[in-house]
Recover the amino acids of this structure.
């Protein structure tokens, strides 16, 4: 059996026990990536670098100095700046950008011994829910509906596709409104968006600064815990990162959920939810109950306002965050232009894709004079209400269980064409970003047609440990069939 | 109260209303949100971090020292300090603004209302209210004149911390506006929060000007941008006042607009009207947390404030008996006070000495400095030497007149006043016998004049004094000379 099918936990044990070498592990991944180019998961390869690192990692295993992720091959979402390695956010406007610096999250991973296989496809600047909006073309899920691939979700579609398809043992994602959890659910794997401030945003290309958060995508809850504890850190270079000790998430998992209060937010039982997902949700509740958890109905009364608020706050911040891509200092610049204004218009007109432009226009509108109060300010007030909803609800429960998405993954070519339906994909995930709380998706079911379904766990600020514990318990009962190992 | 500052128009009198927005560069080794250096005059783009140049994924981290400097400034200007403030983004596109936004404090500034007392030439004082002071980033510099078809960008200034200080429209004359800036500059330099160097752009001024009939509501104002000297301020205000008066009197009306001052022509001209102005889409910067200041930090900064100009003037007036105007002259420039106070400890006569010493600083010393366009820190006579010179006068070792000569030697040749007095033999003669011999000799030589004097021509007394002093090369103690002269003239 290919080494690529192992979880990170299994691979670490195999390396410790000298069952195989780091180089073999890395090489098998490289071979598999080459054999599965049709998934379009990687937009930049760093195979040579990976093989060099593999030798160093092997040395450490040989001398007994292996670190927490020594020799584990990972994929890195292309919005993490990686020193000397092209980083584009899958946008034409940065098609030639090579950062002279390393993001804190990737630095932390490398410092723990992780090996980078390459940079992963994503929706341009993380704006999208199906990884259709990439300058390098759509990424695909290895899962199929009949003959056709499913979309991997977005924006971390390349990350989810790569991990589900065994093209990496784990990957970094980023989540502004669901961009880790939704693709994880679509691809039948695990993804966690930690508490806002848990991971440093330094060196991550910003979409919406107040909502963006880094997190891992893996094939098991344990692996997610292990990756997150090596990604997270307090970072003086990010004023919004929080100085809260990072626990040993993986080692602390005990799956004991006896007496744990699990909240079921009634507002999440919304019209438009796929009945199979509703059923899966019911069953997941019973699984937890059977393991000794207490189910409690909770109310998050402002849930219906979360999505509209999100689609004001996120574009508003994006319209300002992306202003720096102006063709002056780096990245794409239009070949010909009449004057300064024309240079801006042509550069940005050519450099940004349609979805990004749409959101920049929305963002500019909601911040402009005369609309600021009605849109941006009101959305910020809604944000406060949603935070209060969670604060109140978490007085009564330890964790909440909801589906991750209202529908399973779309089949490629059959995705909704109108943006509002597309945006509804985020309806169950955005609240966690708006409230800054952690959220994790765990695969639990397959639909009749064999499409993955994910359940979302939401916890209070900095209680990722609870999510991992409940997630591991859920994972154990669900015995979700991963994408076939072939 | 009558206003002597009114402008006469064709149709009557006009009053000018002036408000200022002053951008003062914060004295700090590094920028407001990055660790890059801030020194003036470095080669282009050598003091630029990845944050300043707007690289992807780079984040601002607030430099707390800049915050402390702004708090010091607020305390020095009698302002309230807001314990909760916030940074906002001001969005606009320009090549020297790498992020496409400037980080500023639009909605919630760090420093709230305060006031400054402005000293006017007639000896009166005018209170000018500060509306607020906020922290913000400077932009870089676009250079358009190096190439016919290219513009160059220097980002050394990009991200440098500025304090924007906004006054209420409280000034009613050019003098009030100029003296406000002088006073502000003086206070900031005392505080060490801005070097006040207008030529290097450390202090720049936007001037809001409107005119009205005395007693009327405010008229429509124009804002003249980036005026960088007191003289230009005067020119810009005068030009704007005349332009607005002529406009209104000829039936037109003032348009609210931003204008640019052209220093070569001494004119202002329209830059953009209100309708053409940018929509800056201000919103809170999501990369930064609200700025929280604890009372303890404010108290600590308040306690460590230096003595400020107004306090110094009071002290000089009450302890040394200086005239307020003289005290203000000494105090205006921090360096002058430092010089004055450095020598003060050496002054032996604590009663008369300080005042005399102050007069010498503002008189003889300033004269010599101005003649050679030197600053007080470049003085060729040290404070302690000048104080020694004052001691020689108050100890009656030399006269004030001789002291001026001694000062001349000190300036040109260097050395202590004692050694000059010694080597040049300038010590004052107080010995009565010695003086009596010389007086007798002078009187003997001027027989006829003595007779005239005795016949009632009192004025001749001065002549005799002059002759005695001349014979003594100015070294006779004036009191002793007078006494002996009187005695000999009357006794005979």
């Amino acid at each position: 059996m290919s080494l690529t099918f192992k979880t990170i936990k299994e691979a670490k044990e195999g390396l410790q026990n000298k069952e195989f070498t780091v180089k073999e592990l890395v090489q098998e991944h490289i071979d598999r990536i080459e054999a599965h180019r049709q998934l379009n998961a990687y937009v930049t390869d760093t195979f040579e670098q990976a093989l060099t690192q593999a030798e160093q990692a092997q040395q450490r295993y040989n001398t007994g100095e292996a670190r927490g992720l020594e020799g584990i091959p990972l994929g890195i979402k292309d919005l993490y700046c990686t020193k000397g390695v092209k980083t584009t956010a899958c946008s034409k406007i940065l098609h030639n950008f090579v950062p002279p610096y390393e993001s804190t999250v990737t630095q932390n991973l490398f410092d723990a011994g992780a090996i980078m296989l390459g940079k992963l496809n994503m929706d341009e600047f993380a704006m999208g829910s199906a990884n259709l909006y990439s300058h390098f073309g759509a990424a695909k899920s290895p899962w199929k509906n009949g003959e056709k691939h499913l979309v991997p979700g977005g924006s971390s579609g390349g990350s989810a596709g790569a991990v589900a398809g065994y093209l990496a043992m784990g990957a970094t994602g980023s989540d502004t409104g669901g961009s880790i959890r939704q693709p994880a659910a679509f691809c039948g794997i695990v993804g966690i968006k930690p508490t806002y401030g848990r991971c440093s945003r330094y060196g991550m290309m910003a979409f919406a600064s107040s909502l963006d958060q880094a997190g891992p995508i893996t094939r098991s809850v344990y692996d997610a815990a292990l990756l997150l504890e090596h990604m997270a850190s307090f970072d003086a270079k990010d004023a919004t990162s929080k100085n809260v000790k990072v626990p040993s998430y993986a080692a602390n998992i005990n799956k004991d959920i006896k007496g744990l209060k699990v909240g079921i937010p009634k507002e999440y039982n919304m019209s438009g939810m796929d009945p199979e997902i509703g059923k899966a949700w019911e069953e997941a509740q019973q699984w937890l109950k059977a393991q000794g958890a207490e189910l409690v109905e909770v109310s998050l009364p402002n849930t219906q306002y979360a999505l509209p608020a999100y689609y004001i706050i996120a574009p508003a911040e994006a319209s300002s965050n992306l202003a720096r891509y102006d063709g002056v200092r780096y990245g794409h610049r239009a070949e010909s232009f009449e004057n300064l204004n024309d240079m801006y218009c042509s550069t940005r007109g050519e450099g940004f894709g349609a979805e990004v432009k749409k959101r920049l226009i929305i963002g500019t509108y909601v911040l402009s004079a005369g609309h600021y109060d009605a849109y941006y300010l009101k959305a910020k007030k809604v944000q406060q209400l949603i935070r209060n909803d969670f604060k109140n609800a978490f007085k009564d429960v330890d964790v909440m269980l909801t589906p991750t998405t209202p529908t399973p993954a779309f089949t490629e070519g059959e995705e909704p064409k109108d943006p509002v339906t597309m945006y509804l994909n985020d309806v169950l995930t955005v609240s966690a970003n708006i409230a800054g709380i952690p959220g994790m998706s765990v695969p639990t079911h397959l639909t009749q047609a064999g499409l993955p379904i994910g359940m979302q766990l939401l916890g209070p600020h900095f209680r990722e440990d609870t999510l991992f514990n409940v997630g591991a318990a859920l994972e154990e009962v669900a015995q979700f069939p991963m994408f076939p190992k072939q | 109260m009558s206003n002597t500052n009114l402008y006469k128009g064709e149709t009557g009198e006009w009053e000018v209303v002036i408000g200022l927005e002053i951008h003062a560069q914060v004295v700090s080794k590094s920028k407001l949100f990055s660790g890059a250096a801030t020194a003036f005059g470095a080669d282009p783009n050598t003091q630029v971090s990845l944050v300043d140049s707007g690289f992807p994924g780079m984040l601002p981290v607030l430099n707390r020292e800049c915050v402390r400097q702004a708090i010091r400034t607020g305390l020095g200007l009698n302002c309230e300090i807001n314990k909760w403030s916030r940074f906002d983004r001001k969005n606009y596109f320009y090549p020297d603004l790498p992020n496409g936004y400037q980080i500023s404090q639009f909605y919630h500034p760090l420093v709230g209302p305060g006031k400054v007392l402005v000293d006017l030439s007639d000896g009166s004082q005018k209170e000018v209210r500060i509306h607020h002071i906020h922290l913000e980033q400077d932009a870089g510099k676009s250079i358009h004149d190096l190439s016919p078809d290219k513009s160059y960008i220097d980002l050394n200034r990009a991200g440098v911390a500025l304090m924007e200080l906004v006054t209420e429209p409280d000034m009613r004359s050019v003098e009030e506006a100029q003296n406000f800036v002088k006073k502000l500059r003086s206070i900031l330099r005392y505080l060490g929060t801005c070097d006040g160097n207008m030529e290097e752009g450390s202090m720049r001024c936007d001037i809001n000007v409107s005119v009205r009939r005395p007693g009327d509501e405010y008229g429509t104002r124009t804002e003249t941008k980036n005026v960088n000297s007191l003289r230009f301020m005067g020119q810009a205000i005068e030009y704007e006042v005349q332009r607005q008066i002529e406009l209104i009197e000829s039936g037109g009306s003032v348009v609210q607009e931003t204008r640019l001052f052209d220093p070569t022509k001494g004119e202002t001209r329209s830059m953009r009207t209100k309708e053409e102005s940018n929509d800056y889409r201000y919103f809170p910067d999501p990369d930064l947390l609200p700025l929280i200041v604890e009372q303890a930090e404010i108290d600590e900064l308040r306690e460590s404030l230096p003595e400020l100009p107004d306090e110094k003037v009071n002290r000089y007036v009450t302890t040394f008996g200086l005239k307020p105007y003289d005290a203000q002259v000494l105090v205006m420039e921090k360096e002058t006070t430092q010089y004055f106070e450095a020598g003060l400890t050496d002054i032996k006569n604590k009663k008369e000495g300080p005042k005399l010493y102050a007069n010498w600083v503002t008189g003889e010393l300033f004269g010599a400095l101005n003649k050679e366009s030197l600053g007080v820190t470049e003085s060729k006579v040290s404070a302690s030497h000048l104080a020694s010179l004052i001691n020689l006068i108050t100890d009656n070792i030399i006269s004030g007149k001789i002291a001026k000569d001694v000062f001349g030697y000190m300036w040109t040749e260097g050395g202590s006043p004692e050694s000059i007095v010694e080597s040049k033999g300038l010590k004052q003669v107080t010995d009565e016998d010695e003086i009596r011999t010389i007086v007798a000799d002078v009187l003997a030589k001027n027989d006829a004049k003595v007779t005239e004097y005795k016949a009632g021509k009192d004025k001749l007394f001065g002549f005799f004094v002059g002759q005695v002093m001349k014979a003594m090369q100015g070294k006779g103690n004036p009191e002793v000379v007078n006494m002996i002269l009187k005695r000999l003239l009357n006794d005979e």
Remarks:
- Chain A is about 35% helix and 15% strand.
- The interface with chain B takes residues 79-81, 87, 89, 94, 97, 99-101, 103, 201-206, 208-210, 236-240, 316-317, 319-320, 322-326, 328-330, 340, 344, 364, 367-369, 372, 376 of chain A (CB under 8 Å).
